[in-house]
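INTERNAL AUDIT FORM
Audit reference: QA-55
Scope: verify that the stored structure record matches its stored sequence.
Auditor: D.O.
Record contents follow.
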Amino acid sequence: MRQLQVIGGGKMGEALLGGLLESGWTDAAGLRVVEPVAARRAELLDRFPGVEVTTDLAAGADHLIAVKPGEVAGVCRALAELGGVRRVLSVAAGVPTARLEEALGTGVAVVRAMPNTPALIGMGAAAIAAGTAATAEDLDWAESVLTAVGVVARVEESQIDAVTGLSGSGPAYVFLVAEAMIEAGVLVGLSRPVAERLAVQTLVGSAALLQSGDRSAADRRADVTSPGGTTAAGLQVLERAAVRAAFLDAVAAATARSAELGR
């Protein structure tokens, strides 16, 4: 029997498949993928030899749901009809555990996850929350799956909307910062390729510095800000433009929108 059935072979499903195989969580014989689109199935078969890729759901204990939110209820009902479901990890955005539990039936352990797109390169940030029947062991299992593509935090389900606003939407905020820095570099005389290379590496290197020790972001900022210097001049403009407040408002707005969509 396959160890895990992945339902949905889109980009997130593919990222998780790759991570699980590369990390040694299981081998190809332990995975089964359900994907309705023929061209996509062919791509998955080509990338993951030995993984069973099919159009049909199968009975089994453990399932990862990575389909569009509107398809989740139908998938859960189909699994319930097949029987034998022990636990389900869902990465479908905006679908609460109660909705999955209702479709799956009593006693199935459900864990809800909110990953983000850097999972596509194994550098994701995800949060997981337990449904009513999920145990600590089920959370350990879900964390082991998602750790294959990044870091995982455990939260209450009531905090998933906040996670969505921060790390779920966060890559877009970072991409906007990168865009602006590149444009600024061009404005002050750099060629676009040079501006892009320097801006992107600055973001990557700065993030790595934050991960390299126990110094806070504020400490790191202070380290590179000499009184009366160039960095201080630039930061003064950002503070006057209320960039910090804009980030606070952006995360709050995305959190509120996530809550609306989940109702």
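Auditor finding: record pair retrieved intact. The mean pLDDT is 95.
Action required: none
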